[in-house]
């Protein structure tokens, strides 16, 4: 036996070694043929995965219209009915309820925190029995299609970080916005329009600014950036050819321009150059696609009555909602509206009345309109602000006048269509200050939205500066309770 | 014979080397598994895995058995028969190849990671083990006991791999399923899931039925069917919603785990906290056997439990047709016809059309290569012909069809009856009659019909709703009964100074609206006020008020704007006195720029005087004929801007010989007067030729006692002179 082993050892000569080695190397070489990007150097597996632009699994919703109520509407005066506050009107907020909550500079110095009940009447609507304020009669009427999430909570207490958090999943800027992520993950449905459009309007209430960083592409390719539509009569400026320029000439010019850009790209390899070529091409196609959409003169009169006559006045919330519906109907993946003026630190009853007048009819109309076109089940409508408002009064509490400060611990956002289950989700305490049941963090909110769109929020990643980023960063759970 | 031997030897070497090669290859593939993409031809090789795997099983088991059971020859040098070596080599070769193919096959979709894990690694282990077995057989097989032990382990590993593989192909309990009672629960979508059958019953089956079935009915309770469960056992019915603890079943569940009567008994698998909540919620809501999960509120534990179970990411519909090739999809996709799979793994396709101007009927017929795969088709706003519906009816797997505003009539709707899987159909915005809808009755799969903005009357809707009970109709919003207030008309002419015969334009966005206006300061009404046609010409300075009216709407609120008319513009201007430092208004040029400024007196469009009276001379190169001079001025009490106390307008053909054309003495405003407004002073005189006009405006010398700056001099501000 030992002799055998010895002989075996003697047989292992250099030729043997080399022949075996070549076999091993050969097998590795053959295997490497199966890895397309092995020798491409710096090949980004993420972009490879994402090129398909397909949902990870069958989506419930294909498009989103996000009616962002910028400035934070008071949930306590609109959806989160708390009669206790009326009963305890003027009494101090118990310290046990407030806990360690960080306050803004605007009320941190207040000696007392007098509870302020809502000045408005509430009633229950829909099969889910959702409480809705008298300020929103139209939304009340479509309550059966709405899922009210009463327990959204955030970490930020000031507008800019809170807004940025909602839009990008992080409080500091520079991350891609939700719409940009969706454009990156799912691509554009209609190649003749941007996948991500932004519309702005302003109410009469105390306003807070919106900035283009909210619809940024961040580190994603700049084709995914939100395109802001102008609030004037021409939503897209400079779209028409100047006098004397024909379509064929424009085409020729773009072809030549693309050639030049191509040669620059060949020289420098900057992907942004490719983006630019694509953008020029899309702008060319938009010349025919946009007028078709922005021409509201052909809307039937019933549409005007549905959204309210203001929908024909460019730049109003109603006009933007109508435009959002038209864009969405034409395959724009994500339409983001911002309506400013909800920051009611003082004079809340008056300001809120005005703001609700602006948005109530058109918001409800959007649901009705999508429904009658067979689009509600594939379009997700989201309505809400960046945080809530406090149950105590900021400044002097008068019987018919009060103000509310920022409140991050709980507030209400509603969604409709797109695979959400109508009803009421979550519960806050009787003071409307803390969450009692089923909290939904902003990260959870994002995870759920991505889920509805057919995306696994943990798989929608982009590698940047050596790490992979997600919209939900390192957190977020899908809230199954609101999914139909 | 030596030749044969030589060939055999070469063949063995070849086979051995090939095995080594394959082992290396396998190791490499495993190392880079996540990055591998399998070309189609290799997929074919991978799919031969189930064929080849039988060889290593047979060969290795054969060799193993030979080692285990071959009678040990008496001589210490004696070996197993020669053929066994070849069997082992062939076994090792086929085992490695099989493992490799298996890896390739596993890259394809449709295998659950968890299930495949053990099969993969036992398979890989078998491959490497068998190669090692052959390589070191002389050393390994030298002693009886280790050799038999090793062979035993190898055979067991081999069989385990085979069994796991069989489970993959045939299902988990394929082997022993004939021995098990049949209790197949089909997967069901959350929308359709029943509370009892799909949520509660599986819990009972898992945790209770082993003791409470027809064979073994502990406590005479049988929980296998709804009827028997409701009947209860010897201790009574399982639930009673009138009691605080909801009755027997939950009472026993909630007992302390050590209690003799606790259910399930100690030692058996216990119910989880969530499962208990589910049972509780189900019983509290009446223990219904037919209600659906979706009838439960969203935050009910039962709903959450069910939604977590029944809907793991993609529990969507599965289709029984094959996917179209990527190439076909790419070729058929254009900028205006977008084809996308429902999701990455779905063979179903969505087709969307855009840009009505470029649509042709051939865009639909071209889709025939994917006619099986189209599940959703949206052709909204495309100019369809009735004949196009015949093309669409060939897309036999359509689930949702959207034909909003396509111009089709109802005549061809019976073509759609061929779509036997159609669930949603939207015909919004087409001239469809209720009789056309009758044809759709034949589509038994139809669930929703969208018929807003069609020719169907509300009465007809009542009728067809009754006739087609299985279908939900969306009739949409009807505007005829809604009366709203119109929004005010838009004033398009923003510039307030109207030159000569220029026209003022108004408009309203809603077609068919009548705009009525007045020029006399009264509110327009819907009967007697002037109707706006193509523009308004004014003869003098005018306050225009307009409202909009339309049948079926309340009249709008009013809009108003003051217009100033001017026919001649002075050619130059000279300020004769010194204006306030910041209010020189480009040395008075703003007075003749033809633009009415807004009320922001700091915007540079105003001239302001305080220390000295305003005195300005206006020149015309050619004499003009004038009958009126108007001065546009400002009052802003808070900023001490008051009306002038005295105004004078002079004119003539020579600078030295001016005549007074008009003058005004103005009162000081009282405290309650409006604080901020435009002022207009008109001076009319008999028409005469003029070359020079001089204007003097004297500011208030001392502000009145009620003003915050009382006693100080006031300002006068002027922005324009208008000559008619």
From TrEMBL, chain A:
<dbReference type="Pfam" id="PF07394">
    <property type="entry name" value="DUF1501"/>
</dbReference>
<dbReference type="InterPro" id="IPR017850">
    <property type="entry name" value="Alkaline_phosphatase_core_sf"/>
</dbReference>
<dbReference type="InterPro" id="IPR010869">
    <property type="entry name" value="DUF1501"/>
</dbReference>
<protein>
    <submittedName>
        <fullName>DUF1501 domain-containing protein</fullName>
    </submittedName>
</protein>
From TrEMBL, chain B:
<dbReference type="GO" id="GO:0020037">
    <property type="term" value="F:heme binding"/>
</dbReference>
<feature type="transmembrane region" description="Helical">
    <location>
        <begin position="52"/>
        <end position="71"/>
    </location>
</feature>
<keyword id="KW-0472">Membrane</keyword>
<dbReference type="InterPro" id="IPR036909">
    <property type="entry name" value="Cyt_c-like_dom_sf"/>
</dbReference>
<dbReference type="InterPro" id="IPR032675">
    <property type="entry name" value="LRR_dom_sf"/>
</dbReference>
<keyword id="KW-0812">Transmembrane</keyword>
<dbReference type="InterPro" id="IPR019251">
    <property type="entry name" value="DUF2231_TM"/>
</dbReference>
<feature type="domain" description="Cytochrome C Planctomycete-type">
    <location>
        <begin position="208"/>
        <end position="267"/>
    </location>
</feature>
<dbReference type="Pfam" id="PF13287">
    <property type="entry name" value="Fn3_assoc"/>
</dbReference>
<feature type="transmembrane region" description="Helical">
    <location>
        <begin position="83"/>
        <end position="105"/>
    </location>
</feature>
<feature type="transmembrane region" description="Helical">
    <location>
        <begin position="14"/>
        <end position="32"/>
    </location>
</feature>
<dbReference type="Pfam" id="PF09990">
    <property type="entry name" value="DUF2231"/>
</dbReference>
<feature type="transmembrane region" description="Helical">
    <location>
        <begin position="148"/>
        <end position="166"/>
    </location>
</feature>
<dbReference type="InterPro" id="IPR026876">
    <property type="entry name" value="Fn3_assoc_repeat"/>
</dbReference>
<protein>
    <submittedName>
        <fullName>Uncharacterized protein</fullName>
    </submittedName>
</protein>
<feature type="transmembrane region" description="Helical">
    <location>
        <begin position="117"/>
        <end position="136"/>
    </location>
</feature>
<dbReference type="InterPro" id="IPR011429">
    <property type="entry name" value="Cyt_c_Planctomycete-type"/>
</dbReference>
<feature type="domain" description="DUF2231">
    <location>
        <begin position="48"/>
        <end position="169"/>
    </location>
</feature>
<dbReference type="GO" id="GO:0009055">
    <property type="term" value="F:electron transfer activity"/>
</dbReference>
<keyword id="KW-1133">Transmembrane helix</keyword>
<dbReference type="Pfam" id="PF07635">
    <property type="entry name" value="PSCyt1"/>
</dbReference>
């Amino acid at each position: 036996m030992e002799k055998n082993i010895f002989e075996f050892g003697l047989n292992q000569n250099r030729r043997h070694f080399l022949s075996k080695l070549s076999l091993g190397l050969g097998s590795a070489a053959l295997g490497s043929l199966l890895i397309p990007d092995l020798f491409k150097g710096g090949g980004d597996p993420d972009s490879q995965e994402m090129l398909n632009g397909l949902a990870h699994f069958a989506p419930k919703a294909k498009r989103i219209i996000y009616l962002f109520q910028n400035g934070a509407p008071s949930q306590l005066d609109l959806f989160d009915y708390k009669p206790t506050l009326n009963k305890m009107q003027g009494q101090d907020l118990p310290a046990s309820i407030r806990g360690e909550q960080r306050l803004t500079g605007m009320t941190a110095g207040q000696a007392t925190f007098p509870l302020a009940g809502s000045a408005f009447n509430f009633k229950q609507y829909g099969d889910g029995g959702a409480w809705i304020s008298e300020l929103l009669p139209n939304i009340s009427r479509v309550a059966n299609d709405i899922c009210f999430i009463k327990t959204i909570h955030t970490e930020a207490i000031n507008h800019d970080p809170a807004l940025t958090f909602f839009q990008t999943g992080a409080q500091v800027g520079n991350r891609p916005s939700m719409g940009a992520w969706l454009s990156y993950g799912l691509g554009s449905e209609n190649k003749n329009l941007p996948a991500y459009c932004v519309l702005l309007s302003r109410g009469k209430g105390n306003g807070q600014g919106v900035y283009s960083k909210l619809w940024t592409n961040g580190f994603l390719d700049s084709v995914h950036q939100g395109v802001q539509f102008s609030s004037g009569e021409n939503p897209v400026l400079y779209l028409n050819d100047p006098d004397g320029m024909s379509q064929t000439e424009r085409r020729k010019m773009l072809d030549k321009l693309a050639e030049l850009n191509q040669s620059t790209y060949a020289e420098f390899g900057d992907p942004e150059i490719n983006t630019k070529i694509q953008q020029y091409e899309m702008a060319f196609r938009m010349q025919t696609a946009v007028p078709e959409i922005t021409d509201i003169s052909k809307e039937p009169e019933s549409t005007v009555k549905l959204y309210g006559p203001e929908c024909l006045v460019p730049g109003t919330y109603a006009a933007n909602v109508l435009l959002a519906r038209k864009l969405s109907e034409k395959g724009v993946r994500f339409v983001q509206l911002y309506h400013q003026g909800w920051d009611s630190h003082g004079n809340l009853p008056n300001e809120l009345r005005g703001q609700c007048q602006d948005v109530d009819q058109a918001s409800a109309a959007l649901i009705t309109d999508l429904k009658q076109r067979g689009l509600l089940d594939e379009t997700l409508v989201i309505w809400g602000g960046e945080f809530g408002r406090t149950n105590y009064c900021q400044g002097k509490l008068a019987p018919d006048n009060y103000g509310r400060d920022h409140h991050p611990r709980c507030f209400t956002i509603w969604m409709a269509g797109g695979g959400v289950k109508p009803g009421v989700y979550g519960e806050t305490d009787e003071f409307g200050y803390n969450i009692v049941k089923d909290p939904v963090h902003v990260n959870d909110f994002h995870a759920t939205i991505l889920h509805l769109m057919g995306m696994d929020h943990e798989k929608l990643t982009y590698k940047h500066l050596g790490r992979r980023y997600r919209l939900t960063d390192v957190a977020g759970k899908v809230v199954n309770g609101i999914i139909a | 014979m030596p030749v044969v031997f030589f060939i055999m030897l070469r063949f063995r070497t070849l086979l051995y080397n090939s095995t080594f090669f394959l082992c290396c290859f396998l190791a490499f593939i495993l190392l880079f598994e996540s990055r591998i993409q399998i070309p189609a031809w290799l997929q074919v090789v991978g799919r031969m895995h189930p064929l080849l795997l039988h060889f290593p099983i047979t060969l290795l088991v054969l060799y193993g058995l030979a080692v285990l059971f071959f009678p040990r020859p008496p001589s210490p040098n004696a070996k197993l028969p020669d053929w066994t070596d070849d069997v082992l080599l062939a076994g090792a070769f086929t085992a490695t190849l099989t493992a490799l193919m298996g890896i390739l096959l596993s890259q394809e979709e449709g295998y659950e990671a968890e299930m495949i894990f053990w099969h993969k690694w036992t398979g890989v282990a078998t491959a490497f083990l068998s190669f090692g077995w052959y390589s070191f057989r002389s050393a390994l097989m030298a002693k009886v006991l280790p050799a038999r032990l090793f062979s035993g382990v190898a055979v067991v590993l081999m069989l385990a791999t085979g069994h796991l593989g069989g489970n993959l192909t045939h299902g988990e309990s394929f082997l022993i399923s004939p021995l098990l009672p049949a209790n197949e629960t089909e997967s069901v979508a959350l929308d359709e899931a029943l509370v009892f059958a799909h949520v509660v019953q599986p819990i009972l089956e898992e945790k209770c039925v082993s003791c409470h079935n027809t064979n073994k009915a502990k406590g005479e309770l049988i929980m296998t069917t709804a009827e028997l469960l409701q009947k209860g056992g010897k201790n009574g019915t399982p639930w009673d919603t009138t009691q605080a603890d909801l009755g027997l079943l939950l009472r026993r569940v909630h007992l302390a785990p050590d209690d003799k009567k606790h259910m399930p008994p100690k030692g058996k698998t216990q119910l989880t906290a969530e499962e208990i909540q589910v049972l509780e919620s189900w019983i509290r809501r009446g223990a219904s056997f037919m209600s659906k999960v979706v009838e439960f509120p969203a935050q009910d534990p039962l709903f959450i439990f069910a939604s977590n179970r029944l809907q793991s990411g993609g529990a969507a519909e599965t289709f029984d047709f094959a996917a179209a090739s990527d190439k076909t999809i790419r070729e058929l996709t254009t900028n205006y016809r977008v084809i996308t799979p429902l999701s990455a793994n779905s063979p179903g396709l969505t087709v969307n059309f855009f840009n009505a101007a470029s649509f042709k009927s051939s865009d639909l017929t071209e889709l025939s290569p994917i006619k099986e795969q189209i599940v959703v088709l949206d052709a909204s706003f495309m100019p369809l012909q009735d004949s196009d519906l015949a093309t669409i009816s060939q897309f036999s797997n359509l689930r949702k069809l959207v034909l909003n505003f396509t111009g089709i009539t109802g005549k061809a709707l019976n073509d759609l009856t061929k779509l036997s899987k159609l669930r949603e159909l939207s015909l919004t915005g087409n001239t469809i009659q209720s009789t056309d809808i009758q044809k759709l009755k034949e589509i038994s799969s139809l669930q929703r019909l969208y018929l807003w903005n069609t020719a169907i009357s509300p009465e007809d809707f009542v009728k067809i709703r009754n006739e087609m009970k299985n279908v939900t109709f969306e009739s949409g919003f009807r505007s005829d009964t809604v009366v709203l207030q119109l929004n005010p008309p838009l004033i398009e002419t923003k510039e307030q100074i109207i030159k000569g015969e220029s026209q003022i334009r108004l408009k309203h966005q809603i077609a068919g609206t009548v705009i009525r206006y007045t020029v006399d300061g009264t509110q327009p009404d819907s009967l007697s006020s002037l109707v706006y046609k193509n523009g308004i010409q004014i003869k003098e300075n005018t306050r225009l008020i307009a409202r909009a009216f339309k049948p079926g709407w309340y009249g709008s609120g009013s809009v108003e704007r003051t217009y100033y008319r001017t026919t001649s513009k002075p050619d130059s201007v000279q300020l004769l006195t010194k204006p306030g430092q910041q209010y020189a208004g480009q040395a008075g040029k703003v007075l003749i720029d033809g633009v009415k400024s807004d009320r922001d007196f700091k915007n540079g469009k105003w001239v302001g005087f305080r220390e000295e009276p305003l005195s300005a001379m206006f020149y015309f190169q050619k004499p003009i004929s004038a009958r009126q001079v108007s001065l546009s001025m400002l009052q802003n009490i808070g900023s001490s801007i008051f009306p002038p106390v005295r105004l004078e307008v002079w004119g003539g053909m020579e600078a030295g010989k001016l005549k007074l054309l008009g003058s005004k003495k103005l009162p000081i405003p009282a405290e309650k007067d409006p604080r901020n407004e435009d002022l207009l002073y008109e001076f009319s005189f008999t028409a005469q030729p003029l070359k020079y006009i001089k204007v003097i405006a004297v500011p208030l010398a001392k502000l009145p006692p009620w003003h915050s700056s009382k006693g100080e001099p006031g300002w006068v501000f002027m922005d324009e002179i208008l000559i008619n």
